[in-house]
Amino acid sequence: MSAKPITPHQPKRFDGIVRRLQQFLHVNEIRQIVALIRYYYFTRIRRRMQTYTGPNVDLGENTLEYNLAKVRKSVTVNNRILHLVRPVAAIEVVATHLPEQQVLAIGPRAESELLAIAAYGFTWRNIRGLDLFSYSPTVDVGDMHALPYEDSSFDIIFNGWCLAYSDNQPLALQEMVRVAKPGGYIAIGQGYTRLTDREEVIREHGEFLGGANRMNEIDDILAPIADNIDKIHFRHDISAEDRAAGYSAILVVFSVKK
After folding, report:
1. Which of 93, 98, 95 is nearest to 231 (CA)?
2. Total structural domains in the chain?
3. Which of 25, 26, 61, 93 has its CA 20 to 30 A from that of 85?
4. Predicted TM-score of the model (pTM)
5. Which of these, 158, 155, 206, 200, lies nearest to 181 by C-alpha position?
6. How many helices, marked H, and strands, marked E, lie in the chain?
7. Maximal CA-CA distance, the chain
């Protein structure tokens, strides 16, 4: 597999200044303004929107089209990733080495998700995103079933509300394990839905979205990579009340062994 090198975005001598400025990104409005300015700069001035053109046999139906349509909204409304960043940043080993952590965010749509990660002290030059499309030099274009990175490249991998778009979730999970460093962390967030029948989904949403074999339970998600899970550091299952309501989120953070 051809691996893509992880390259910095600015000289290391500016890291300290950048990290101090990143503290302002905790303010949602500031984060939105920064994300919006960068979005218009890269899309309107630099015109660098790219889309994935490789084989996508494992991607769920309408995945690319649906997410492309949501890019503009995601620039200013995309705080779900914080449900994963907060528990990861609270892990003592991570908290004491935040600036050195190499981070990958899979399926961010827009830079706003990466800015939210940076707000917690992760160095901007060490954060990469990967999606099926990108306007940002920080987000690589690629498929989560064939990540374009070398083995053991990242300390932390976030997959927020992206895994459900896969028709082959075990392969996507195995790819995350492959590019995670031994002892690294993988954080997964996914919406739970009571709709599992294709016709039900189409009746409610007007089209079928996401993968055909959606996993709604944390145990089912983790089963394909059980041998590579060292410790589960954070877990949020669905309550009975949430199941009755029909929608909520499942969250899990675990460390990797190889």
Report:
1. 93
2. 1
3. 61
4. 0.89
5. 155
6. 11, 9
7. 56
Question: Exposed (0-12), middle (13-18) or buried (19+): which is 24, by Cβ within 10 Å?
Answer: exposed
Say how far apart CA 50 and CA 198 lie, in whole Å.
30
DSSP assignment letter at 107: S
Cβ count within 10 A of residue 156: 27
Q: Where are the beta strands (DSSP E) in the chain?
A: 50-51, 103-106, 127-131, 133-134, 139-141, 154-160, 180-193, 229-236, 247-256
Q: What is the DSSP letter of 75?
A: H
Residue 6 lies in a domain: no
- 212-229 pLDDT, tens per residue? 777 888 999 999 999 999
- Give the domain extent around 182: 18-256
Task: State the Cα–Cα distance between residues 171 and 176, nearest whole angstrom.
Answer: 9
E strands along 70-175, which residues? 103-106, 127-131, 133-134, 139-141, 154-160
Segment 102-143, tens digit of pLDDT: 999 999 999 999 999 999 999 999 999 999 999 999 999 999
Tokens 């053991």: give the residue. Answer: 152
CATH value at residue 138: 3.40.50.150
Is 117 within 8 Å of 154 (Cβ atoms)?
no
